[in-house]
Request: fold
Amino acid sequence: MGERDFYAILGVSRNADREELKKAYRKLAVQFHPDRNPGDPQAGERFRDVAEAYDVLSDPEKRRVYDRFGEAGLKGRGHDINAEDIFARFMDMFGGFGDMFGGGRTRGRPGKGRDQQVEISLSLDEAATGLERELDLQRDAACDTCAGTGAAPGSAPEVCSACRGQGRIGHSQGLFTITTTCPQCRGAGRFIRNRCETCRGTGRQAVHKRIKVKIPAGVDTGNTIRVPGAGGTGVEGAAPGDLYVVIEVREDPRFQREGDDLVHEMQIGVPDAVLGRRLRIPGLFDEVRIDIPKGSQPGDVIRIEGEGMPRLGTRGRGDLWIRLDVEVPRSPSREARKLYEKLREIEAQ
Ligand SMILES: [Zn+2]
Ligand SMILES: [Zn+2]
Reply:
């Protein structure tokens, strides 16, 4: 087969710079995109050519080889581009189909419902005990009219004749082996002749849904809980998407969290630091007994075992660390000052 002229395919000069290439690619890729040209195999070919041309010319190394040796030079150099790459790059550049064509379709596993993500914010106490939260979500559900098939009542989706239900069409062309999304069914493998009017063939409708999510004790900021099947409904009976609940645990004025451990800053007076003291403070769950040793120094840390956060997914809890801060009185009472004076006399002896 003949060598293709990648410059001609993109309609640019041999000196075209990055920006020119990108511009040309954008324009042509949109023009020949299979979604814009359903059932037109020629557009699909052009789209692939454009994508391959851009793939080679936008890569300085590949471009140098191509300029010197032509398409044949690229052979055996691992130059391979498949449909996934083409579409991934396309999505990168254009930010998705929805923006471009004004539709709301998402690509990916054909038919599978969309994954959804929600963020929830918890107090430290809530994170410590765990809880069940009811979330009010707007999500996709199966269309009532067509029960999610996307086909008008009384009809059913048909197996796509172009790809025989595979959703993809394979081509072997020169050095490239390429599979493209079937332009007739757009990868679904099925074809809806009479579309349901309610959902316009998507099989989905937006509904408010309340979902209860169990949040285990010990979660921390950034933890994600996956609720399988609680995302968007799949098309034509395909599996629903998943719901991802992303946790944020708010800062707490009493306890600073370090993993499963908690740190509490405690101010004590000079007498307590010198003489030591036993006292109780409110912990995260119960009152905690603290034994301040005699002669404690500012910055000393007392460890109280098992009074920290519950360990996520296992038994037991982290520790509570009490960091002592010795408070020096700024304006002691007359009586206290007298005692300090007395103390100084004694220590001077
Ligand atoms: Zn419907
Ligand atoms: Zn098809």
Remarks:
- Residues 110-140+204-250 form a domain with the HSP40/DNAj peptide-binding domain fold (CATH 2.60.260.20).
